[in-house]
Amino acid sequence: MRGRVRGPAIAAGMLLVALLVVPAAADPRVRARIPTYDVVLTLRADGVLHVRETITYDFADGGRGIVRRVRYRDGDRVYEIRDVRASSSTGAPSRVRTTRLGHHLRIGVGTGGPEVRGRQAYVIEYDVLRAFTPRAGFDELGWDAIGTEGDVPIEHAAVRVEGPVRLRHVTCRAGATDAPGASVGCARDRDGRYAIDFTQSGLAAGEGMRVRVRLPDRAVAVPPPAYAPPHWAGTWAGTAMLVLAIAALALVGRRPPRGPRPRPVPRRRPSAGTGLLAAGGALILVDVADDVLAGGPWAFSLGDASLAGLALLSAGAGILFAHGVGEP
């Protein structure tokens, strides 16, 4: 009896190992690693944050470049990222391709080039505008020097903060910085009059380093922060209009079924319903275009114009349904 059970148990165990271990080993991102990740944050007197990232990437089974995701929108707060450029001291392809995806700027370096193997070094530079927040008596910067969007572990990371004045209030947290209580203080390596260094070892995938700096008031030029409209920007009037339209459509949908007709009469499409559908679609398109053309596809906010358009679409659909359009 024991022998009969042992065979199936061993087979089941081997199958479980194959399902869990083999796919992980086949994924090149599991074996890939970042030996060193060095970041220099330069706080310029004109209020611009200049970022220089030097990333050493060890491709396990080969790959086509690296991808860095930089958050340009945090809630309704919007940062302007410009002048993105990259290079490689090891000769790897370093052509830059940027795409706004979600609330992040996706920076692809060498992703469209030939495959590379082994250890490669990349340098990414960019400027961040409107990164400082004016406070009472000081100006504050909070920045993810190493974001938490990476899926490759980092063996050793270093962040250097350089300022135009003496840096007195600078802190750094490492780990899952986007989750409260899941981060720890970074190791403070060297302190200088105008520069402070932080280091951290053993960052797992999804862990990063976030720096917070307080500068004396007017130490740097700080333009007003930029805010995008919230994704839901409708007022009570627009919301009420949409709710009433949906309620009316629901009442129409509950009409009693009509008895069978011996000879169905084809019905013409009511012009009022068609007109409401067209007007509703036009309102939504205008509202979408107004936001998207100015700030990209993820800047769209659902305002009163879109709510009114949805209400007109609901009313038009209700009229068409009430007149039995499409019934045999």
TrEMBL record:
Entry keyword Transmembrane? yes
Provide this UniProt record's keywords sorted from A to Z: Membrane, Transmembrane, Transmembrane helix
InterPro entries associated with the record:
DUF2207
TM helices/strands, residue ranges: 232-252, 273-293, 305-325
Q: Which Pfam families match?
A: DUF2207 (PF09972)
Classify the source by domain of life: Bacteria
Domain DUF2207, by residue range, is 33-213
What is the protein's name according to its record? DUF2207 domain-containing protein
